[in-house]
Design goal:
This protein is α/β, with parallel strands linked by helices. It has 13 helices and 13 strands. It is globular, with a radius of gyration of 21 Å.
């Protein structure tokens, strides 16, 4: 049997929505995009949602909209994907790597505060794998030092911190709908904010630097108006109705997806309890649901052997993520980090298969294979 790490939940609902888009012939940014943005904002509890091409694009223009650039610093956790520090680099700023908490793998508030300098303009906490960062502590430190908070929610759609959805704590917040996330549109992303002026700026930045996109010009005039103005350097990062049509169908499935993944997480915890060489995730009391990953720790220096064994049995696992500054690009540009906890836990962490359509047969096979590895040690 083969068991993938992720499997998207796609079917007739997405095809139906796509058929509607094809019938209208409007495949660019249009009414489906606006509807997806509206529904997303309501769900998160934010005043504004802006659809873009990816979570990476969302982070990029979030930093730009806040006026952060050359000479400035942005603090990011050491364990994250490259998109998080890239958001600083794309804008000419410098990412500064802070350590993570050993249990949650999220930004350590104490080390975040230690890494603040006079050049620090923002922090980007990452809700890693869907486990929320400790936002009360992070927000308190950020307010004290007058630092912007940009939530990286790419891993965490549906996650709640003390009852509130992630994506409402920072001044701007960023989501991803990449192929493996809780819901997917193939690619795509979303920004949320409660600041009307920032929302207007973000809408301009994702459309070349103009707030008057094609759909607005088409829908707002009896005759199509060709005129628009570009007021600043922007990008071609707009979501389109093909992405949004898939997103709207996926969005309806989100409650069931989250419920199924929560059940699988609980089943994993029960099934793997008592293995001395494997440590199941420790969830802080303030976080709930929205889990994208199920991350265990393999003790005794056996992580890589475990992953090889699982692969030989047809089961895909992965590491999310090694310290990001270990990548050769960051070494090439002279960036590194002092993050001993991240260095230590990165040698043990491994993500197991977790997707809402995982069958009982697939789950049983994964558990059996893990326990067989225990016997083969």
């Amino acid at each position: 049997m083969k068991v993938p790490l992720f499997r998207p939940s796609l079917g007739k609902e997405e095809l139906k929505n796509l058929a509607e888009v094809f019938k209208t012939g409007w495949v660019g940014a249009g009414p489906k995009t606006q509807e997806f943005e509206k529904q997303f904002a309501i769900y998160i509890g934010a005043k504004h949602a802006i659809g873009v091409t990816s979570g990476t694009a969302a982070l990029h223009i979030a930093v730009q909209a806040l006026g952060i650039g050359k000479g400035d610093e942005i603090i990011v956790p050491a364990i994250t994907v490259v998109s998080t520090p890239y958001a600083a680099l794309y804008n000419g700023a410098t990412p500064v790597f802070a350590d993570v908490e050993a249990d949650t793998l999220c930004l350590d508030p104490k080390d975040f505060e230690r890494k603040i300098t006079k050049r620090t303009k923002a922090v980007i906490p990452v809700h890693l794998g869907g486990h929320t960062a400790d936002m009360d502590k992070i927000m308190r430190i950020a307010r004290k030092h007058k630092i912007f908070v940009i939530e990286d929610c790419a891993n965490a759609l549906g996650a709640r911190y003390k009852g509130k959805h992630v994506g409402v704590f920072g001044i701007i917040n960023c989501f991803s709908f990449e192929a493996k996330k809780n819901i997917t549109t193939g690619d795509g992303g979303m920004l949320t904010t409660n600041n009307a002026k920032l929302a207007e700026k973000l809408r301009a930045l994702k459309w070349y630097g103009s707030s008057n996109d094609t759909w607005k010009r088409f829908a707002g005039n009896a005759k199509y108006s060709w005129h628009y103005d570009v007021s600043e350097l922007g990008w071609k990062f707009n979501m389109n109705d093909v992405i949004a049509a898939i997103g709207l169908a996926q969005f309806k499935k989100l409650p069931k997806i989250l419920k199924n993944k929560d059940m699988l997480r609980a089943r994993y915890n029960r099934a793997l309890r008592g293995l001395s060489w494997l440590e199941t995730p420790k969830d802080a009391s303030y976080t709930k649901s929205g889990f994208w990953l199920y991350v265990v720790r393999i003790k005794g220096g056996k992580r890589d052997a475990f992953m090889r064994y699982m692969a030989e049995q047809g089961i895909t696992t992965s590491v999310h993520f090694p310290p990001v500054f270990h990548h050769s690009y960051f070494k090439k540009i002279g960036l590194s980090g002092n993050t001993p906890v991240a260095e230590r836990v990165a040698k043990e962490i491994v993500s197991l298969p977790l997707f809402s359509t995982m069958s009982s047969k697939e789950f049983a096979y994964v558990i059996k294979t893990i326990k067989n590895f225990s016997g083969s040690k």
